Amino acid sequence: MDILAFLPYWLLVFVRLASFFLAAPVWKDKQVPGHFKIGFAFFTTVLVSGVIEPVPIAEMDSIYTLLILKETIVGLSLGFFASVLIYAIQLGGSFVDMQSGLAMSTMFNPQTGVQEHITGRFYYAMAILLFLAVDGHHILLQGAIASFQWIPPEMWLPSEASENMAKLSLSILKNMFWIAVLIAAPMLGTIFMVDIALGMLSKMVPQMNLFVVGIPIKLFAHYIVLFVTMPVFFYVVGMLIRVMTQSTGQLLKMIGT
């Protein structure tokens, strides 16, 4: 077999995998060096060579450049749709912090380069640990490799791919907000009851300064409910991982040829 004849094909495979690792959870973090992502994409391409059958590509012309662009879009889409659901966890933590009085208390995240809420950051760290514990990264990697069966590198995307991706994006965003509400619901309900109790207390004891008493009570309730509801949180994260797997399969079926 002439390796040089199939080199353009394997370059397309490498571009898709490299784009996937740039946007997928765990791999996309800034703490993962860029040369590691490129090297991991290269060795994954070598492993994929034993799974798919290469097709010789005649010329590396302008058409080939468009194929590279297509592979970049497919790889980024696979990684992005998986990452959006992970963002639901941080969104749920932001909802909690806004109600419990921690909205102004943020911390710098070196992975993303932005300020993040404390509870959202804690939820995200716990979710990533569970994600790795149940081999969620293997599931994503398996989906990226399976994408070559549904979307061959040498083939163009079907004409209805953009419409299908738009519908799937709306569905994933809906699931993201729904999961964020499920994560934050116990905490929001508790803080709401605390607000009602403080309001009744202020009517009975007008001399009491709620700004002095209310914030410590809210923080105490916040941390108590946070640790009591951790089993529910892990259950929701498990459901999120299942939704992530289903979304990856739906994406491949929708934009596959």
TrEMBL record:
Name of the gene encoding the protein in the UniProt record: fliR
Transmembrane annotation, as ranges: 33-52, 64-89, 177-200, 220-244
PANTHER family, per database record: FLAGELLAR BIOSYNTHETIC PROTEIN FLIR, SURFACE PRESENTATION OF ANTIGENS PROTEIN SPAR
Record-level GO cellular component terms: bacterial-type flagellum basal body; plasma membrane
UniProt keyword annotation of Coiled coil present: no
Family: Belongs to the FliR/MopE/SpaR family.
Keyword Transit peptide attributed: no
InterPro entries the record matches: FliR, T3SS_IM_R
UniProt name for this protein: Flagellar biosynthetic protein FliR
Membrane topology category: Multi-pass membrane protein
UniProt-annotated location(s): Cell membrane; Bacterial flagellum basal body
Keywords: Bacterial flagellum, Cell membrane, Cell projection, Cilium, Flagellum, Membrane, Transmembrane, Transmembrane helix
Top-level lineage group: Bacteria
A biological process term (GO) from this entry: bacterial-type flagellum assembly
Pfam families to which the protein is assigned, alphabetical: Bac_export_1 (PF01311)
Purpose: Role in flagellar biosynthesis.
